[in-house]
Amino acid sequence: QVQPQESGPGLVKPSQTLSLTCTVSGGSITTSYYAWSWIRQPPGKGLEWMGVIAYDGSTYYSPSLESRTSISRDTSKNQFSLQLSSVTPEDTAVYYCARGGPPDGMDYWGKGTLVTVSS
User: Fold this and answer.
1) What would you report as the CA-atom Rg of the chain, rounded to the nearest whole angstrom?
2) What is the average pLDDT value for the chain, to the nearest integer?
3) CA 78, CA 115: separation in Å to the nearest integer?
4) Looking at residue 12, what is its pLDDT?
5) Are the CB atoms for 46 and 34 separated by under 8 Å?
6) Residue 8 CB burial class (10 angstroms; 0-12, 13-18, ≥19)
7) Residue 106 to residues 8, 34, 54, 57, 111, Cα–Cα distance (Å)
8) CB 13 within 8 A of CB 33
9) Among residues 54, 68, 57, which one has the least CA distance to residue 104?
């Protein structure tokens, strides 16, 4: 069973960079032709797909977040990471990592981690 798990700080100050890591068990992030996504859900709002890193390391981002988002990976640890720069309180959300991405969707999800942006 593939199991992604998010980790990282639960509180980030405005203007700083939010950094999260997703550790995957039960499957390799380099297995063809899977991709791995970051998704977030602000309080009281819907899910927002942020970006994806494919099995070959290529990345694709949501146009609305592309200027502030970076996704990378550490294949030796079977992890992929999210960095979101210049955060504001509007970036407060539960952040999820998951296997898959647009247009086919995601099948295995982490439990999510709440990140609050506040001074």
Assistant:
1) 13
2) 97
3) 23
4) 98
5) no
6) middle
7) 22, 10, 13, 18, 13
8) no
9) 54
> CB–CB of 79/73 below 8 Å?
yes
The CA distance from 98 to 71, in Å, is: 13
Q: Locate 117 and state its tokens.
A: 């942006």
63-82 CB burial, b ≥16 within 10 A, e <16: eebeebbbbebeeeebbbbb
| Tokens at 67, concatenated | 């200027």
Both structure tokens of 71:
């996704």
Q: Kindly report, residue by residue over 74-113, the tens digit of the pLDDT.
A: 999 999 999 999 999 999 999 999 999 988 899 999 999 9
